[in-house]
Amino acid sequence: MNRMIRLLLAAALLWSSGTGLAAAQDIVEASDMVRGGMQAIQMIDQGKAGELWDGATPATRKRVTRVDFTGQVARSRTSLGLPQQRTWVAVNRQVVADPDADTAGQYVSVEYETRFTNKPEGTLRELVSFHLDRDRTWRFSGYVLR
User: Fold this and answer.
1) Model-level pTM?
2) CATH homologous superfamily for 3-145?
């Protein structure tokens, strides 16, 4: 996997104080997750959904193929045009109990309210999720547009 993408999507989400290095920790700052979510969405804006999937958590890559993920993203976004305005509205944390160790654990989701050029009369919600993997690194785990 491309080291730059991995750093952008996973390690760059958490910064240890003063060092600029990724911190693998359970406690995250909401502002770090908002920035990480924005980076993920901007990759989608730039047509880099495949690269986003490449850096995703193992559970995500097991659940949906790269082709299916990029196709779903393209189908949901193409008719909307470019984003005109995007504002984060919520950060949620959830712990999931699951027998599959790749799926179980901590999740953080960031929700954005977005206005697109081809839908000027209203906004849509974009939800970006991250999972704290077994190696204690936060990674992209999902994107939903509703």
Assistant:
1) 0.80
2) NTF2-like; domain 1 (3.10.450.100)
